[in-house]
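Subject: Protein record for review, amino acid sequence with backbone structure tokens
Concerning: The relation between a protein's sequence and the shape of its backbone.
How to read it: Take the token row as a discrete description of the fold.
Enclosed: The protein record, placed directly beneath this head.
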Amino acid sequence: MKVLTVTAASLALAGFAFAGSTAMPTAAEAATKACEGPKVSWRFSFWGKRRAFTEGMEHVTKHVSDQTCGNFKINIYYGEQLSKSKENLDSISVGAIDGASFCASYHPGKNRPLNVLDLPFLPVADFDTLRKVHDAIYRHPASAKALDKWNAVIYMSNILPQYEYMGRGEPPKSVADFKGKRLRALGGMGAAARAIGAVPTTMPASETYTALQRGTVDAIGFPFTYSFASYRLDEVADWYTTNMSLGTVTCPTVFNKNAYNKLPAEYKTILDEAIPGAYDAMKEAYASVDKVNLANWGKSKMTAVTIPETEMAEFRRIGGKPIWEAWVKDNQDKIPAQELLDLVLKTAQQ
């Protein structure tokens, strides 16, 4: 499968306003100049702790520091030290932080074009396909326009695996058993949950452990398997699903536009060069943690639930394309919604 390489040109398409000429130095030129460049220190906001989801930016921070001889440092702050997860985009907007990750589904009205990536049951089952699709949507002018309102520019995606459910109580045996259940289901996955009679709710990842433990929700929709373990839900859960592949959400890394535009051209080139390795680091981290988690869960008392494929086919029928079409209808007067959906579907097939 062909994987897109992000270049300086593609970053420009994504909305980056390069200082002066758009011509960027070569890798060799950037490396030579970077060690003579200015001292720059950025503050980057993540929620939670270091985990597979954050390994991409961990790679980036090391790469830029190494390649600039320590002149450009991106300091990652975990645990919402700098900004709440739902407020990262606002903090970027006012320049309180220089970089952050945010999930578009936390506040869909702020960046509608990105929400096409949150629709349920899109044909994006593997990491490389997700990367291609996210890259295509991030490069679309509508995405750049939406984020420009927040003085933000997209750098790359923090890829999240397909979502499954982990819950407490009697394990479901069929899709029908989800009727009436209170589910943490983000974005279009919430609409799909309503289609089968469940009650969706949105909450930040950092609140999920307490919600499941106290019974505020019956099950949590999370990327399989890493998020369940990262937020320790496996400590309080009774069951988890294995084959629903509900969809995923988009959580891009963005930079404050002013901070980015002030960077020397060679620093921008080095940021560009870090992207392929960052994606590789995430992909490897997910594979590694899945192996460990599945082995541990196999020894636990949790029940692994596999929903019959005939029922999943029906769930995809009523919870997939109808939700896509409703999203297009709801957004067609605000953004090029059909064009964005068509871009997702076309790119996923390439």
In short: The chain has two domains: 10-105+151-158+251-287, 163-248+289-349. The CA atoms of residues 156 and 253 lie 5 Å apart. The first strand starts at residue 40 and ends at 45.
